[in-house]
Amino acid sequence: PRPILLTRHGESQDNVRGRIGGDTAISEKGEIYSKKLANFVRKRLKSERAASIWTSTLQRTILTASPIVGFPKIQWRALDEINAGVCDGMTYEEIKKNMPEEYESRKKDKLRYRYPRGESYLDVIQRLEPVIIELERQRAPVVVISHQAVLRALYAYFADRPLKEVPHIEMPLHTIIEIQMGVTGVVEKRYKLMD
Ligand code: F6P
């Protein structure tokens, strides 16, 4: 069975500063990850000529994919990170201090909470539907380079995790989650390539 490889982009400038959203480039550490990832993909998908690399439309995923050669790359807007609306570019500390009600309502119901002029996890889950349909249609392996919230939703779908857990699934940087759909169900492996 063909694998689906899920990974977040390499560490971004905003990750370093603790800012959410945005469209910054990757850091030096992020670049190191992009090379390790390319190496991993080259070995793992050696004889898989029909494989493809899917990214979001944000710089940090496109840059993370750039050292990967020999496979077609497709950009999906539906793979962009959760839209934090008026909170885009803020740190969690700043949200807590400047918009305490927003901070509290998100904490109370992270799945349903929608950022003002932005999205909720439920919104993200809904917009991922075409991506999921296309992923299920693919016969060849796919490497999905996306973002924390989006990958939680995608992973939950394939690993059959309940909705309420989605916003809390661990989705660390610099880690590849490999999913294989077998006859007996889903087999999952995690490869932590660096800290
Ligand atoms: O901090 C990185 C990030 O991808 C942000 O852009 C995004 O808002 C956040 O993670 C999503 O995670 P959480 O739902 O836990 O805030």
Automatic annotation (TrEMBL):
Residues of the full protein shown: 460 to 654 of 654
Name of the protein in its database record: Fructose-6-phosphate-2-kinase/fructose-2, 6-bisphosphatase
Lineage: Eukaryota, Viridiplantae, Streptophyta, Embryophyta, Tracheophyta
Organism: Medicago truncatula
